[in-house]
């Protein structure tokens, strides 16, 4: 697992790639960007829990430890999250 938590977040076709730390505040911001997109209620509930629930940061970190990219289809768009490389890290 990585010791730093900088990620690149993109909503393809809606928001450009952005580098941020993987924190609860960042996950809340991602949820705020997609929460009003048209999607089925079960998907809405899943994404709300996945991005803002008590284990959200741990789940995404764990997924990214095993896979290079997290891609979630959202209302005709794709939410993409991946680790930031040292060149992309703003710190």
Order of helices and strands: EEHHHEE
Distance between the termini: 19 Å
Round the mean pLDDT to the nearest integer and report it.
89
Total domain modules: 1
Task: Provide the β-strand percentage band.
Answer: 25-35%
- Name the quaternary structure: single chain
Low-confidence stretches: none
**Overall form:** globular
Explain what this protein looks like in three dimensions:
- The protein has 91 residues and is α+β, with helices and mostly antiparallel strands.
- The chain has one domain (6-83).
- It is 37% helix and 30% strand.
- The chain has 3 helices and 4 strands; from the N terminus they run E-E-H-H-H-E-E.
- The chain has helices at residues 24-34, 41-52, 56-66, and strands at 6-12, 15-21, 69-74, 77-83.
- A 4-stranded antiparallel β-sheet has the order 2-1-4-3, covered by helices on one side.
- Helix 1 packs antiparallel against helix 2 and helix 2 crosses helix 3 (56-66).
- The longest helix has 12 residues, at 41-52.
- The radius of gyration is 13 Å and the shape is globular.
Entry summary:
The protein is built from 3 helices and 4 strands, in the order ββαααββ. The protein is an alpha+beta fold and about 90 residues long. The longest helix has 12 residues, at about 40-50.
Features:
single chain; 91 residues; alpha+beta; four-stranded antiparallel sheet; 4 strands; 37% helix; 30% strand
